[in-house]
């Protein structure tokens, strides 16, 4: 079973409120919205640079 990791980020109140608005508009929690955006970023990176392999992560 894959180990879950925790990430804590700090942001100013205005950005927090805007992210909360966007997440609600998209029908996601803030956590799910952030995961969606992170996955989108990784997909775009891999599209441009090729897959990130397990050995690249060491």
UniProtKB/TrEMBL annotation:
Keywords: DNA-binding
InterPro entries: Arc_DNA-bd_dom, Arc_rbn_hlx_hlx, Ribbon_hlx_hlx
GO MF entry, a single one: DNA binding
Pfam families given in the database record: Arc
Domain spans labelled Arc-like DNA binding: 3-41
Protein name: Arc family DNA-binding protein
Organism in which the protein naturally occurs: Pseudoflavonifractor hominis
Lineage: Bacteria, Bacillati, Bacillota, Clostridia, Eubacteriales
């Amino acid at each position: 079973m894959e180990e879950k990791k925790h990430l804590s980020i700090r942001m100013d109140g205005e950005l927090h409120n805007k992210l909360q608005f966007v997440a609600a508009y998209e029908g996601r929690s803030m956590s799910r919205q952030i995961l969606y955006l992170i996955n989108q970023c990784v997909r775009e990176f891999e599209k441009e640079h090729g897959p990130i392999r397990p050995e690249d992560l060491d």
